[in-house]
Amino acid sequence: MSNKEVKAALKSARDAIRNKEYKEALKHCKAVLKQEKNNYNAWVFIGLAAAELEQPDQAKGAYKKAIELEPNQLLAWQGLANLYEKSNQTDVRGDLTDVYQKLLQLLESGDKQKWCDVCNKLVDLYHQEKKYLEVAETWQKLIRMKQEEGAEKAELHQLWKKMIQLLKDSTQNQDNKTEQSLLTAFEHAVNSADTVPGEDHQNLYKDFIQCLSKFPHETARLEKACHDMMALYPTVSYPLEALCLHFVQSGTLSEEALHWFSRLLEMDANSGPGIIGFGIKCLQEKKYKEAVKSLTEGLQKTSQCPAAWHYLAEAQMKIHKHRDAVLCCNRALEAFGTPEGPSLRWKNLILQLKAEALIKIADDDAAEEAIKVLEQIVDASSDPVVLAIRGQAYLNKGLMDQASKISQELLLSHPDLAESHALEGFIHYSQKNYEQAERSFLNAIERKAETAEYHQYLGLTYWFMSDETKKDKGKALTQFLKAAKLDNYLGSVFCYLGNYYRDIVGDKSRARGCYKKAFELDGTDEESGTAAVDLSVELGDMDTALSILNEVTEKASTGTAKWAWLHRGLYYLRTGQPSQAVADLQAAIRADPKDSNCWESLGEAYLSRGSYSTALKSFRKASELNPGLVYSIYKAAAVEQILGKYENAIATYQQILKKTEDYVPALKG
C-alpha cells in the first residue's frame, strides 16, 4: 500500500466514522496498520470506532498506543478523555484526572476556551472526590488564566464566588492551604463586587465572617472583616454580633470587648450575643444572680455557644445551684463539634466544672458520674487541681483508699497547693479526726485564704472537735462568719450560724434571721426552713412563718416539701381551720405515705371537721404504721364510741390498758 493509498484509506475511515459505519472504519484502519503499524491517526480512529461499538478495552488500548507513538498530540488524549467520561466505572477517575492534567499542558499555549473547559471538568472531578486542595490550586490557575486574558471584573467576581462554593465544605478537613485559599477567595469576592453596599454583597460578607469564625487562629482576620463590614453596613447587627461571640469564645474579656457588647445592646436590645456579653460582665462584677438571668436569656436566643454555657454554669456554681450548673455543662458539651485547639481547652474547663458541681451535689450517683467525667479530661493526670477533685469524688463515693492515695501523692508533689491540704482535711473530717483536720484546713487557708469552703469546714471541725470547743463555740463562730463574708450565697454556713445563735447563745431572733437567709439561698434546705418557721412561731410572728410555708407550698410539685405541708396543716388545725388542715396534711402524706405522725394529724383534722369515718381510718393507719402510738389507738376507740360502735371501742380501750394500765383517757373511755 503506497503513501497515497494509506491517505485514501484513512479518509475512508474518517468518512465511515462520520456516517456511523464503525465496523467499516475498523476495516480501513486495520488495512493501514498492515502497511504502517505505527500510524498515529489509524490508532486514534480505531479508538473512536471501538468506543462507539462499546468495546472500551479495545478503544483504550488503541488510544494508549497512539499516545505512546506521539505523546504530545492532542487527538488521542481527547479520545481517551471522552472514553473515560462515558465509563460508569469509578476506578477510571484516577486515570481521567491524569488525562485532564496532560490536556491542560497541551492546550495551555493553544485554544484557551478548550483549556478552560478541561479545567472546569478537572475541578468537578476533584470536587467529587473531596480533594479540596487540588480544587483550590486548579481553580486558581483558571482565574490566573482569565486575568491574563483581561477578563472583566464581574466575570472574575463570579469565578471567586464559584471557588467559595467549591471549597465551602472543606472547613471540616482542617487543611491549612485549602483554608487559606477559601479565605483568599472570600476576600477577592467581597472586594470585587459591583454593587456595594447591596444585598448580595452583604450576604457574601456574612458568609465570610461565618467562615472565619470556624478558624480559631484567624482572629485578626475575623476582627478586621467585622470592622470592615460594620463600616459598610452601620445599621446591620450581624458583624457586631459575630465580633461579640468571638470575644465570648476567646475567653478574655477586655475593655474593648465590653465596649462592643454595649454598642450591640444599644443597636439591638434583644440581641442574644449582646445579652450574653452583659451577663459575663455581671459575672466579672460578682453580680451572680443578674449574670444567671442575662446569660439564661441570651442563650435562649443564641444557644450554640459553648463558652456562654460555661459562663452560665460558673455563675450557677457561685450561687450554689449545682444541679443547674451540671445541666449547663451538658449543654456546653452538646454545643461542641469535635473539639480541637482552643475548643479542647474549653472542653477540659467545662468537664472540670461539671465534676466540681457533681461533687458539691454530694450523693453516691453524682460522685460516680464525677469520676467518669474526670476521665474524659485530656492530660488530667498532669493537673494537680483536677487530681484533687478526683480525690474528693472518691471520698464522696466512700472509696477512702483511693482518696488517701491521691492526697498523699499531692502533698508530696504539690505541698504549696491549697487543694492538696484541703483534700487531706476533707478526708480527716470525714473520719472524725478533727485535730488533724484542723491542721490541714489551716494549711489550706494559709495558701488560699479567700476560699469560703475552707473556713466553713474549719468552723465545723471546731464545732465537733472536743468538749472544750463544744462549750465555747467562739472559734467555730469566727470561721463561719469569715465564710459567710467571703461567700454570702453559701446557704449552709448561715444554717450553722443559726444553730450557733439558737443553741449556744439562745438568741432566737438572730437565729431565725440566719435560718431565713439560709432557706432563701437554698430552698431545698428543709432544716433551715423548718427552724425558721418554728422560731417564728415561738417568737409569735405567725405572718413570717406562714409566708415561708406559703412560698414553699406554692412552688412544690406533688409528693415534695412534706415538712412545709405538715407545718402549715398543723397551723390550720390549731387555728380552727380543719378543711385547709385536711388538704395540707394529705399533701404531706403524698410526700411520705409511711409517716405515722402525718396520719395521726390528718385523723385530728378529719375529727375536727366532723368526718368521723375518715378520721377513724386515719388513726388506724397511724397505729398500723407505728403500733407504739397509743394516742392514735385511743383516738380510734373514741371515734368508734362517737359512731356508736361500743363493743369495738371497749375492745380497743382494753387493748390500750393491757399495755398501759394507768392511761387515763382510756379508763375514762
TrEMBL record:
Highest rank taxon of the organism: Eukaryota
Repeat region (TPR), residues: 40-73, 562-595, 596-629
Signal peptide: none
Transmembrane spans: none
Coiled-coil blocks: 3-39
GO CC, any one term: Ski complex
Entries under InterPro entries matching the protein: Ski3/TTC37, TPR-like_helical_dom_sf, TPR_rpt
Alphabetized UniProt keyword annotations: Coiled coil, Repeat, TPR repeat
One Pfam family recorded for the sequence: TPR_8
GO biological process: RNA catabolic process
Designated name of the protein: TTC37 protein
Organism: Ibidorhyncha struthersii
Taxonomic lineage: Eukaryota, Metazoa, Chordata, Craniata, Vertebrata
